[in-house]
Amino acid sequence: MNNSFDLNSVIRPHILTLAPYSSARDEYTGHAGIFLDANENPHGSVTEAHYNRYPDPYQAEIKAKLSPIKNISTNRIFLGNGSDEPIDLLIRATCTPEKDHVIILPPTYGMYEVSASIHNVQIDKVSLTTDYQIDVDAVLKAITPDTKIIWVCTPNNPTGNVMQDSAIETLLNNFNGLVVVDEAYVDFTDSASWIGRLDAFPNLVVLQTFSKAWGLAGLRAGMCFASAELIKILNKIKSPYNISLPAQRALLEGLSAVEKKDEMVKEILKERAYLRTMLENLSLVNKVFPSDANFLLVQFDDAKSVMAYLIDEAIIVRDRSRVHLCEGCLRITVGTKEENELLVESLKKFKQNSVIA
To answer: 42, 67, 123, 128: least CB-packed within 10 angstroms?
Structure first.
């Protein structure tokens, strides 16, 4: 067990003493009254819906509704503008530019590297193994006194697989920085969320999103779960009103529709199984990798030609063929039944056209 972790040793010293911006809504959090504190337009909005008042900067209603769903107290929840905001804030809170390091495990989600690069933070890459698991020994060897974060995506993007619990536990127990477990696709796997283990590991941070299973990608809303102390730090350095009022209203509506979310997930899993079977039966497909996400990583004989053909057919997938350990692969999101059938039929025609050519 990592009992020696000290959050203050990870956070940049000036952040610990930073006086955060104090908004009008920090001084009064009630809903009733005459609001003459925030220089808002008192006459309403130019739209039929009224957006003349600033939103709750800490999204208290949403967190209260989310808390029992995730079985975690509200003071351990941070809500951001997508998961990309907490990714950025975690780097800003912990990493001194031109000095500190983060570790990423390619192939993985690209924003870990982009955010670190924006802040001029050193990126140490430790490749996953050929079966897309964490090379624990290599990661431990890559840790330096200046390493502040290890990024772990599980289920991983773009490979779709879940990382072994034992590997993540080893990192948590042997690293005195933050281990950030990104669970953007957790709703599509039977594996338990790491949220339930936050008490056991003080250096654990868990990210989730409303973009995938909840079907709210357009709202740009992400979730971060961590110790109350770290959540306070993130609230200190975030933008004052980081989630808009329309987005907050939509999130409250969405959190009342958990059963609908579960139904959509069930349908996606059904279609994922169908799509896997159909793709595996195509001769132009070399391999369909196991997936615990809402997409499949598929290796083709000629991924470049298949990608170009699908674009001509107005079917857009993601070309991952130039990504480390994903050579010859396209990432295909699981669509509706009709969309999946059209994809399969198009690929069958590609095979026929190739034979004719």
So the answer is: 42
* Top-tier CATH class for 7-256: alpha beta
**pLDDT value of residue 351:** 67
Taking a C-beta distance cutoff of 8 angstroms, is the pair 71, 81 a contact?
no
pLDDT in tens, 280-338: 999 999 999 999 999 999 999 999 999 999 999 999 999 999 999 999 999 999 999 99
Whether residue 221 contacts residue 85, with contact meaning beta carbons closer than 8 Å, is answered with no
CB 172 within 8 A of CB 203: yes
The one-letter code for the residue type at 153 is C
CA separation (Å) from 301 to 84, 286, 298, 306, 307? 34, 6, 10, 9, 11
Which of these, 95, 159, 92, lies nearest to 127 by C-alpha position?
Answer: 159
User: To which H or E segment does residue 150 belong?
Assistant: strand 147-153
Q: Do 178 and 229 meet the contact criterion of CB atoms below 8 Å apart?
A: no
Superfamily name with CATH number, domain 259-356? Aspartate Aminotransferase, domain 1 (3.90.1150.10)
